[in-house]
Amino acid sequence: MFVGLGKASLKPDQDSMERMSRAMLRARVLEDKLASLYRAGRIVGGVYLGKGQEGLSAAGGVALRKGDVLAPLIRDMAGRLGFGEPLVDAVRAYLGSKLGPMKGRDGNIHRGDLSRGILPMISHLGAMVSATAGVLLAKRMKKEKRFVGLTSAGDGATSTGSFHEGLNVAAVEKLPLVVVVADNGYAYSTPNERQFACTDLLDRAKGYGVEGHGVDGTDPEACWEVVGRAVQRAREGAGPQLVVGRLLRLCGHGEHDDGLYIDKKMRSSDRGRDCMEVLRDKMRSRGLEQDLDRWEKEAQEEVEDAVKNVAEEPLPDPFEEDWRATAMMGASEAVQKG
Amino acid sequence: MSVTYLDAIRAAQEKALQDDPAVFIYGQDVGKFGGAFKATKNLAEKFPGRVIDSPISEDAMVGLAVGAAMEGMRPVVEMQFADFSTVGLNQMLNHAATTYWRTGKPCPMVLRLPSGGTPGSGPFHSQSMEAIYAHYPGLVVMTPATVEDAYSMLLEAIAMPDPVVFCEHKLLYYHLKAKSLPAEAVPAFKAHVARAGRDVTCVAYSAMVHEALAAAEELAGEGYETEVVDLRTVKPMDTDTILASVARTGRLLAVGESWPWGGVSAEVVSRVASEGFELLDAPPRRLNAKDTPIPYHPNLWAAHRPTAVRIAEALREVLRY
């Protein structure tokens, strides 16, 4: 069994670096915008940011390809964008546009698009692990080849029975599932030491009989390499892969939360580095800082345009809604009757 | 040659596996062992790779089915006992049931629940879960009472684009028999008048249909004709058939094997009271199990659930009003 700690021994090529950078930048720029719209009272529902987790999340998104499946969690804007979710989908969901992927029936971080292989998460943590495994089992039964599913979890989600059952069943079925745990130190306000008693969540890989990979989640290059390798191993038939990225959430649980409980020492340690700054250092050392500036500017324009356009879009109308919870006409009509 | 209720469930799964390559069966011990009740006997051999043993992970069993259904398969999940489906409730109620509403894409799956009491089964192997599932939007809940319905409704459930909770009654598994599998079927969402009568309506479902029919027989000896309506599917509920029956009789008793707080029998009474108030000549009544966990000892169990004797007593009270 391979359990390794990821060091950025393999440098991403220029194209991969651009994909990583763009996904991270677009996510950060968009989320900063959403946070300010939230403070202005323009967002329907809550806003949960991936600040500080863009590198780890983007690494998953860019490692996947068409035909793969992504089951993102609440801090995966970068992974979604890296995998190809249109940025406007997020803006529509947050601003409550009727044209959004879920038409106002569900919102924001729950958005998904099954036609693109993006599963719409439910709020109950750990639940997406077995659902993603189910998609993969179905693909295998349909004789599809070389596909991968990737889902995210936080340190808190690893405490759920659902997470355990899901990873265990994926291991039993030897499914090409990558579970990326963003260990950001806190589940809402609860620190690791109140969440689990093991030294390192990575140790759990052995218990499940899956391959484990640890990575410094603040280092986008390392994330690219380690998550990419886990996806590759899954694609090659090595079964489920558990990636644990250590990092820190650089914001509250949601924008309603100031996150003052986050330990100041941890914040000023290496674990509290901002992956966007690490990215900038790496790009500077490669002499590519101007590219980064240009991509950032493009991201800003894209976000501003999207917000401007979506603000003009219609909102969900309760009189046009068909209020149908079942797909079958007969069932719905019978239920509708009372 | 006769066919039991359990044979019908096995035969329906075999036919579904034969007819549709998207169908597969998933559950504890369902493979080579053929299931705790043998509802999947020999199916693993006949359909290699499509009758799959799961770990003891009810949450993951349902979650995996949700994912597979989203990907175009038609999973049939066998819970070993309905009672254990509480461990998978989150995936069924919050995931399967919300998928169509949230995404506009269907989630076709069936959750088979070996349900209801049998002597000596006790608090954790006897439950009737239909009311809990029926409460949540997005699910269809079926409660077949006959061999014919066990077969045709399970086939219909598997073919539906929605998640279906299929409550099979364990007491009927071996003892309920028919001459053969049905060639044609009443649509699953229609209630069925199992016995016609003009004096009082008794609405029941699942095993309680047979208790109600026995009670009706007893009352016939006393000169009262009881109409027994078998709901067949509890959600959606065929209110029209219930109201039509109450229009004929003017009196209603709704019977359920599950607990008395809320539930299917309460829903029946509520609908008749609000939509058919003028049809009633007596207050509509309900009869359910006692409001305690289900007892283990047969002496206690027999007094806990509604039986033909208790249904007959309740019907007499409705008739006396």
Report what the structure shows.
Chain A is of the alpha/beta class. In chain A, 43% of the residues lie in helices and 10% in strands. Chain A has a single domain, classed as 3-Layer(aba) Sandwich (Rossmann fold), CATH 3.40.50. Chain A has helices at 14-39, 54-63, 77-83, 87-95, 127-141, 161-172, 204-208, 220-235, 264-268, 275-285, 289-311, 329-336, and strands at 3-5, 69-71, 149-154, 177-183, 186-187, 190-191, 211-216, 241-246. In chain A, strand 3 (149-154), helix 6 and strand 4 form a beta-alpha-beta unit. In chain A, helix 2 (54-63) packs parallel to helix 8 and helix 4 (87-95) packs across helix 11. Chain A is globular and about 55 Å long. The mean pLDDT of chain A is 94. By secondary structure, chain B is an alpha/beta fold. Chain B has 2 domains: 3-178, 3-Layer(aba) Sandwich (Rossmann fold); 192-320, Rossmann fold. Chain B has a 7-stranded mixed β-sheet with strand order 3-2-4-5-7-6-12, with helices on both faces. A 5-stranded mixed β-sheet of chain B has the order 9-11-10-13-14, sandwiched between helices. In chain B, helix 3 (58-70) packs parallel to helix 4, helix 7 (208-220) crosses helix 11 (308-320) and helix 8 (239-249) crosses helix 9 (264-275). At the A-B interface, helix 5, helix 6 and helix 12 of A face helix 3 and helix 4 of B.
